């Protein structure tokens, strides 16, 4: 039987688009109000804020995150190649803007190690191209002229007229100029993606790609911090293969290691790791995480200051951190052109991490987020702070987990965290002058524990899915050994190729009947299945399209042990030979047999089936090549008096077959060619004469 399809009214796409355009362009006070409240979600939830119920959790989580944020912000400035004050600016503005625009109640937006690394790589490259020394301990650039070098003081002054800046600018000035231009462009990309609703781009970043990218970038971060751990003063490696070249330079200069930094690093790592492990072990008993990083920074700063570690042992320190805010400045347009390409992967990674964490929190605490608004929120968390000497931001997993575990209820906690950072910015920043850089490196390395622990999950990941493990390994290797941006691109492309390869060579099987039932399963996977006499049932577990057409045919011919084209060609060959012998008046065939025995020679291999049932339940769509392939096997098998029956086709496949003329002009034979279950097709085949 054939089920009657519903008739769908055809809607003109042009009319729909015009209606949407008219609706979006119309202006009413109510629509303006909804637009403002959608753009600033804080206007919706803040008036409904339950102060007595939420305030304690928000204040506590805000204080804890603020205490964690300050040392991390100072530490991550090493990754970004910028001064610590800019990291503090970034943390402050990001929390305030996300409070106004974000839809997630729990996510912590601010400085993030992977984003800082990506910013730092662009900054270092542009500094190198501009002629600056990448040595962190080089004095600030001074002097006049377009480009001057002083080998004794190792300083460079650079006239930035080529970059659209008329005034001379030192290394620090140029570095933050690059960072703000990069951040502004990344924010613009994110806002444009939100306007054009391009959030679907994040779907191409699978979990394996993101994990591999995070792990590979973590190895790069770890490598970049080793020189601070042991106090070796070498320039940061640039270009592809930075991880390998950095380790080579480290081993070449290992004799220059600073014993003071090595001892300090060893003590700090032991303290931090021990505290983290104890915190993980007893987290159910602790109301909030131990502020280990802050304690380590305070103690290390006091020891460095009173022990004069910089003067006596030449240990690298953070240096002067100014208080207050510098006047806002528009990012330079010419610098934006230099970093426009680099901003694209930065924008995508920042958005993907933020949305994935937001969705994770929303699912856990039973509320909804708006992914498009999240893109706007992250975009403006980059655009607006770029005018205030800040660099790119994103949601951070570790701080988000801490936030949720310390009683956070809304983004009011973000404002509390921003106030803690503001306190440091206005009053406490100069106190970190004597803080050793090796201590900051220890904080960064210990914060990578989560990403580096992914190596322990490789056996379980491999057991679960070998292809996903391969995608993870390729992405991780490319991110670590080539560069983070190339690694992300390689991961996306490789994962897509794996999907294409999977659809090109999917599983195929002949099905057998489960005894005394109307169900059929893979004869190669299950025992005690009975074959159906005179009927072959073929399953193809993928869409049928141009890339897997040949594999479909080869698998069908191999499993049914019959290639209709070869069989038809062989028959024609024998018929031709028989005609030649008959013309000569010879009553024997070319094989020396009588005419009565010719039929046996025409079909030496007995065909053991008269109907072929194709299980289309796993074929999600057909393209033109797929339809033509099915039409081809229909014709070829018909020439051998074998009927081809299709079973379990979904509506889109049926429509494709109709449009392709598979069922004839008037679909008259459709009832004899298409069936809604395999069993119906088998029963029809058995009833055929």
Automatic annotation (TrEMBL):
TM regions (residue ranges): 54-78, 107-123, 174-196, 208-230, 250-274, 335-355, 376-398, 418-448, 469-502
Family of the protein in this entry: Belongs to the SLC26A/SulP transporter (TC 2.A.53) family.
GO cellular component: apical plasma membrane
Protein's cellular compartments: Apical cell membrane
InterPro entries assigned: S04_transporter_CS, SLC26A/SulP_dom, SLC26A/SulP_fam, STAS_dom, STAS_dom_sf
MF-aspect GO terms: secondary active sulfate transmembrane transporter activity
Keyword set includes Transcription: no
UniProt keyword list: Cell membrane, Glycoprotein, Membrane, Phosphoprotein, Transmembrane, Transmembrane helix, Transport
Recorded topology in the membrane: Multi-pass membrane protein
Domain (STAS) ranges: 525-685
Keyword Transport: yes
Catalytic activity: iodide(in) + chloride(out) = iodide(out) + chloride(in); oxalate(in) + sulfate(out) = oxalate(out) + sulfate(in); sulfate(out) + 2 chloride(in) = sulfate(in) + 2 chloride(out); bromide(in) + chloride(out) = bromide(out) + chloride(in)
Protein known as: Sulfate transporter
Gene3D superfamilies tied to this protein: STAS domain
NCBIfam families: sulP (TIGR00815)
Coiled coil regions, renumbered to chain: none
């Amino acid at each position: 039987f054939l089920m009657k399809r519903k008739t769908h009214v055809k809607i003109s796409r042009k009319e729909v688009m015009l209606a949407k355009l008219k609706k979006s362009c119309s202006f009413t006070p109510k629509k303006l109000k909804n637009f403002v409240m959608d753009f600033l979600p804080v206007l919706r939830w803040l008036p409904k804020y339950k102060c007595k119920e939420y305030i304690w959790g928000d204040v506590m989580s805000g204080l804890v995150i603020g205490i964690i944020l300050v040392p991390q912000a100072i530490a991550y400035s090493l990754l970004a190649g910028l001064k610590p004050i800019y990291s503090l600016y970034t943390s402050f503005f990001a929390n305030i803007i996300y409070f106004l625009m974000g839809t997630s109640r729990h996510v912590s937006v601010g400085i993030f190690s992977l984003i800082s690394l990506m910013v730092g790589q662009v900054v270092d490259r542009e500094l190198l191209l501009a002629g600056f020394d990448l040595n962190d301990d080089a004095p600030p650039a001074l002097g006049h002229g377009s480009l001057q070098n002083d080998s004794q003081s190792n300083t460079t002054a650079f006239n930035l007229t080529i970059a659209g800046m008329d005034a001379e600018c030192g290394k620090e000035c140029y570095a933050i100029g690059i960072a703000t231009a990069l951040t502004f462009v990344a924010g613009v990309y994110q806002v444009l993606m939100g306007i054009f609703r391009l959030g679907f781009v994040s779907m191409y970043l699978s979990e394996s790609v993101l994990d591999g990218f995070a792990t590979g970038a973590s190895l790069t971060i770890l490598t970049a911090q080793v020189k601070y751990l042991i106090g070796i003063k070498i320039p940061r490696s640039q270009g592809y293969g930075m991880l390998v070249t950095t380790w080579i330079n480290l081993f070449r200069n290992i004799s220059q290691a600073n014993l003071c930094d090595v001892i300090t690093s060893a003590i700090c790592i032991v303290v931090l790791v021990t505290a983290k492990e104890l915190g993980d072990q007893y987290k159910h008993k602790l109301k909030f995480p131990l502020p280990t990083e802050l304690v380590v920074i305070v103690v290390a700063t006091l020891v460095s200051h009173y022990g004069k570690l910089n003067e006596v042992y030449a240990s690298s320190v953070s240096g002067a951190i100014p208080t207050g805010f510098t006047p806002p400045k528009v990012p330079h347009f010419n610098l934006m052109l230099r970093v426009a390409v680099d901003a694209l992967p930065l924008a995508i990674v920042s958005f993907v991490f933020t949305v994935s964490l937001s969705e994770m929190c929303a699912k856990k605490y039973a509320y909804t987020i708006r992914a498009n608004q999240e893109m706007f929120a992250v975009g403006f968390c980059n655009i607006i702070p770029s005018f205030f000497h800040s660099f790119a931001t994103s949601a951070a997993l570790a701080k988000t987990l801490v936030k949720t575990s310390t009683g956070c209820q809304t983004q009011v906690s973000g404002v509390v965290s921003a106030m803690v950072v503001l306190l440091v910015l206005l009053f406490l920043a100069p106190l970190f002058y004597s803080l050793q850089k090796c201590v900051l490196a220890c904080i960064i390395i210990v914060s990578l524990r989560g990403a580096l622990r992914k190596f322990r999950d490789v056996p379980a990941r491999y057991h679960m899915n070998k292809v996903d493990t391969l995608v993870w390994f390729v992405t991780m290797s490319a991110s670590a050994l080539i560069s983070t941006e190339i690694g992300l691109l390689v991961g996306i492309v490789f994962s897509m190729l794996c999907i294409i390869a999977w659809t090109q060579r999917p599983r195929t099987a002949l099905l057998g009947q489960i005894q005394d039932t109307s169900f059929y399963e893979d004869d190669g996977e299950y025992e005690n299945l009975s074959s159906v006499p005179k009927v072959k049932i073929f399953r193809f577990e993928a869409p049928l399209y141009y890339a897997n057409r040949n594999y479909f045919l080869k698998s069908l011919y191999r499993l049914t042990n019959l290639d209709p084209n070869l069989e038809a060609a062989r028959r024609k060959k024998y018929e031709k030979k028989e005609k030649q012998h008959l013309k000569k008046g010879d009553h024997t065939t070319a094989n020396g047999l009588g005419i009565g025995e010719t039929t046996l020679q025409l079909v030496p291999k007995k065909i053991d089936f008269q109907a072929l049932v194709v299980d289309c339940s796993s074929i999600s769509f057909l393209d033109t090549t797929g339809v033509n392939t099915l039409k081809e096997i229909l014709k070829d098998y018909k020439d051998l008096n074998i009927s081809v029956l299709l079973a379990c086709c979904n509506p889109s496949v049926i429509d494709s077959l109709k449009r392709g003329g598979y069922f004839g002009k008037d679909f008259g034979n459709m009832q004899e060619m298409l069936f809604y279950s395999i069993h119906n097709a088998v029963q029809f085949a058995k009833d055929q004469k």
